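In the laboratory, one determines a bound structure by crystallizing the protein with its ligand and collecting diffraction data. In a computational setting the workflow is compressed into a single prediction: the sequence and the ligand go in, and a structural description comes out. We illustrate the idea with nicotinamide-adenine-dinucleotide.
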Amino acid sequence: MRFENKSIIVTGAGSGIGRAAALLFAAEGGHVIVADRTEGADETAHLIAEAGGTAKAIRIDVGVEEDVIRAVTLACDSFGGLDVMFANAGISGGMANLFDTDVALITEVLRVNLIGPFLAIKHAAPRIAERGKGAIVLTASVAGIRSGAGSPAYSASKAGVINLAAVSAQQLTGSNVRVNAICPGLTETGMTKPVFDYAREANKMDRVGRLNPLQRGAQPEELAKVALFLASDDASYVNGQAIAVDGGLSSSHPVTRQEYGRTAA
Ligand SMILES: NC(=O)c1ccc[n+]([C@@H]2O[C@H](COP(=O)([O-])OP(=O)(O)OC[C@H]3O[C@@H](n4cnc5c(N)ncnc54)[C@H](O)[C@@H]3O)[C@@H](O)[C@H]2O)c1
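The predicted complex, in structure-token form:
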């Protein structure tokens, strides 16, 4: 029960990694503001209530400043303050290459994926600091570490999120508010549903995630658990970091691997 009576906001909590995290925060005693722009927010809040937890749903667009302020205000009014912000909402923006990416597309991807976390930090950090300590966790991506896991717009937005975690951790010196990011690899969520659906239908699940040494994609809970760790006092000395949660994908240059079993005695 690491989050007993803690006030927590999760954005993008209507689906995927955000929903998994909201359920786990609530299961560990947290009081959760379930924020999303879709009705998925209400469904997640309902699931938490069914499991005996405490949650309130709110419809927001994370890239709109007034909406983020509304979510922070709801947390403070409902649960007496704010301890944790998990700024997780994001969009893929599709797989458009450099020359198919128009200004409208890259502007929207940056608005949601980068300005969203910026607004979350800006408005959550002062409220968390009032509690004496707390944490902000952002969802970046392996696409933000190097090329090969997303479009130019998406990858640039996630590289920005990694930098935002580092810079804001520094700017919050003395506040006792930590800021870290998770960098998921391929995870089965709403965003990647077509990939997983296609692989299942075509009997090609063995191809999904095969570029990482675990040779599979992740389930949302595997990402959510790392976000909870970073949000908890277990990570009390982890600050300004971006943690890859990708089965080992980003730990290698592109080489032909020697597989266990072929090389082991
Ligand atoms: N699934 C993956 O393989 C993967 C890999 C790397 C990073 N990520 C990141 O993980 C995060 C969570 O995505 P997911 O994979 O769970 O996908 P998902 O589509 O299942 O969930 C994303 C949620 O964010 C919400 N959202 C999108 N734009 C919003 C906005 N402007 N305001 C409020 N809510 C908004 C969506 O409605 C949705 O409920 C995203 O930041 C994504 O970029 C995912």
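The radius of gyration is 18 Å. Keep in mind that any predicted model is a hypothesis to be tested, not a measurement.
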